[in-house]
Write a sequence for this structure.
């Protein structure tokens, strides 16, 4: 795993001092080779031991090990990006913009994959696959993914109860049981109403799956299984695009696992697609 990717992926889980170190490294990776651990500490106004602990927490032996790994990551990135950068430099600037966006989306998808181990993805797919009913909710923009994923599950013959209104969802959950699943989409995981819904659902003995950013948030505390998304960019108009792209890739992985779970489910998908297609034709 690239050291820079690892730092980006773990940033949201870091303390305030660790985030300062992480941001400095990410923003000044090219200059890191000229910094000793003491110089880095002085630049940030922290102790040298904080820098060393930061490196060790990421799995490196110490600061020299981290610095070497960052140098390797920069060299690999430069080698990979050189042909693209050369081609874009002599063409329309919009091509360079599109290439940069594609690269940033790829990085966000890789970071998201790294913080969701295969066992967690398998557990989500298995839990949904065994569910009697899957209750799905997302508020605002989060409902875009909630609605789309509810449709995909329905195509597989999985009974879904989708809602974007917390009062209606609370009423619907009166029919929930111990074999049912609640899937909650919330980028920041801070809505008190969604936390209350999770508490109520767990009282019904159902399983709760949350989908949020890779941050410490109140919604994750109610999850039996948490899916996490890592997507960062200093530009406020780019970061949401990275989040949606990484989240969609994550959900696609779960959907594919469900599709390949057995012949019956695959046959149900094909049958539903055959029924729906004539309705979409003019």
């Amino acid at each position: 795993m690239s050291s820079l990717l690892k730092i980006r992926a773990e940033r949201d889980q870091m303390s305030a001092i660790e985030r300062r170190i992480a941001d400095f490294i990410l923003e000044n990776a090219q200059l890191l080779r000229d910094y000793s651990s003491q110089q880095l500490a002085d630049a940030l106004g922290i102790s040298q031991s904080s820098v060393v602990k930061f490196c060790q927490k990421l799995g490196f032996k110490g600061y020299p090990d981290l610095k070497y790994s960052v140098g390797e990551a920069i060299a690999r990135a430069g080698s990979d990006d050189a042909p693209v950068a050369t081609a874009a430099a002599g063409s329309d600037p919009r091509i360079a913009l599109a290439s940069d966006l594609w690269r940033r989306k790829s990085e966000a998808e890789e970071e998201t994959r790294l913080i969701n181990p295969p066992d967690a993805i398998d557990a989500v797919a298995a839990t949904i696959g065994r569910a009697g009913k899957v209750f799905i909710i997302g508020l605002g923009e989060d409902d875009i993914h909630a609605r789309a994923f509810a449709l995909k599950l329905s195509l597989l013959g999985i009974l879904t109860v989708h809602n974007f209104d917390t009062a209606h969802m609370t009423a619907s959950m009166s029919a929930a049981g111990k074999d049912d699943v609640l899937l909650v989409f919330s980028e920041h995981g801070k809505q008190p109403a969604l936390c209350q819904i999770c508490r109520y659902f767990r009282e019904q003995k159902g399983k709760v799956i949350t989908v949020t950013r890779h941050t410490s948030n109140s919604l994750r505390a109610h999850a039996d299984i948490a899916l996490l998304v890592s997507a960062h960019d200093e530009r406020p108009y780019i970061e949401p695009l990275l989040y949606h792209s990484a989240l969609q890739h994550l959900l696609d992985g779960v959907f594919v696992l469900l599709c390949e779970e057995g012949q019956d489910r695959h046959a149900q998908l094909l049958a539903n697609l055959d029924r729906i297609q004539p309705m979409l034709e003019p």
The first strand starts at residue 134 and ends at 138. Residues 22 and 28 are 10 Å apart (CA to CA).
